[in-house]
Amino acid sequence: MQMSKFYITTPIYYINDVPHIGHAYTTIVADVLARWHRLMGDDVFFLTGLDENSAKTVQAAKERGFEDMQKYADRMAENWRKVWRVLNISNDGFIRTTEDRHKKTVKDFFTKIYEKGDVYKGEYEGRYCEGCEAFLTESDLVDGKCSLHKKVPKIVKEENYFFKLSKYQGKILKYVKNPSVILPSSRRSETLSFVKGGLRDTSISRPNAGWGIPVPVDPKNVVWVWFDALLNYISGADGRYWPADLHIVGKDILRFHCTLWPGMLLSTGYELPKKFLVHGFLTVDGQKMSKSLGNVIDPVYLSEKYSADAVKYFLIRDIPLGEDGDFSERVLITRLNDELADILGNLIHRVLTFIYSKFNGKVPKPGELDKRDRELLHLIESTSPSVGNHIEELNPGAGLREIIKLAKSGNKYFNDSQPWQSIKEDPKRCAATLYVSAQLVRSLAIMLAPYLPSASERIWVSLNLPGSVHEQRWDSAIEPGLKPGHKIGEPEPLFEKLPSKTLTEGKKSKNQAPNTITEQDFSKLDIRIGKILGAEPIPKSKKLLKLSIDVVGEHRTIVAGLAEHYSSEELVGKQVAVVLNMKPVQLMSIKSEGMLLAAEDKGGISILTVDKPVKSGAKVR
Ligand code: ME8
Question: Do 124 and 205 sit in the same domain of this protein?
Fold first, then answer.
């Protein structure tokens, strides 16, 4: 059978910072779709990557004290790759615009349109927004500021190379009119009205300030970063997969993708992308995410706290794809407890532990199925294609909600069938219940594979089935794939419920931006610099040390968990930061009168000290 190819992309992200939950959202949506297409047997190429030739890179490298820009880019690329690993993203390609293969593509492409006569040199004066990396028009401004980045753009007058985008107005209009090209339709209408307003020729070069890809015909200039970045979709996929079947982008970059990009491709004779899925923006607890509000959400922190699957579950289930949505840690915790643990985890665990303990770990032989059994099997048969249709129609959230509904029906089926009763009264009936329930568990593993790649694999392993769940065919979810007598593995709980304390904290953060406190809040802490005079081990404690610290001539005793990280000799004489007004606590029968500040990561604990010596008692503010 001929495999169909499926080439799916995310935007390539800027490297002025590490990924936040918005970048993770786009990439997770792409991951779900890519994984589903693989289960459908398609030849998938899923590309993501980094947009490195931007002025933002130069600025960020400077701010972080890097003189060597490429070194900075390499460091950031490692960070981004790591985040995608933590989130279990299944991208096939990763393109960086500082790679040679990309630079070559850009140069060849520029030369091609230049030779065709679609590029001319001209003087340009305009307002350049460095946030957008683009010249803005009057309609992009609100009170003279960029409507997205809230900054007054720079007036720039320079000689640039221009691409004759206006020449392709008619063809682009026809392209974007096609209702299958831009989804959702509201974004198509937005693009249509923009194109109808008239496409203007676009400046595609900037003066060469030492970073970027030189214009092949005139190296005093570099290729404009958007012209360069869009070409990642060609350079990143070995030429084999073009045209893209699906470009997933956020609404902020719709215009570049749906006007300039088709224009560039039309000029060079490449096929046009088949589809764009434009999603909305995430806010956090109802507020715009921003560094100044301190509410930028780190997907790694979330994954480490709740698991990558739980983060994916929340984002796909709760954010209506295509519209703006709100991220709330409180809701994430609720979904984890009420749906992943209580519905899904509970169903799978109770079925597998029952088989493990009452049937010697073997899927029982069913005997005759009754109406209730047949109804559940029919539900499995109808759910799987329906979930598939939702994903195909780019509504993976609806698919996920159906899967949870099926798991809920599974719990009801199990309760109504009362196998704990029938095992005593009618063992054949009990065998049928567990046979059908086991088929449901297997089907759920396959259906969940695109959404919860780790949990679904763990279910597969618990079922002791060969290979990986990710190698199965989507259609096989409807088959009763577990034969009677098949021996399952030892069941393990799938999702841990979080204690209610976490929930309360989550709830509290609803009314205030998380991580933000006022100066008044901060001033409640009396943090001082003190000098460690002594550090003794505490008998019977492997972790704790008893420290004697001099703060403003007063000796404080502080018990700290440093014994596995520092020797006494290393500590004595160090100036450290201490919270003085902590309520004293008894630790190993010693009164601890304060708290030593330290940083912790996987490498261990590092105490906070001062950059230059200060007087004992100096206040930290
Ligand atoms: O624009 N909610 O890169 P970028 C949802 N390099 N998604 C968000 C988001 C939010 N609050 N914030 C960002 C660039 N995103 C260019 C792209 S492509 C040829 C070049 C996501 O790092 C969303 O997908 O600013 C958005 O389009 C993208 O990150 C912008 O990433």
Answer: yes
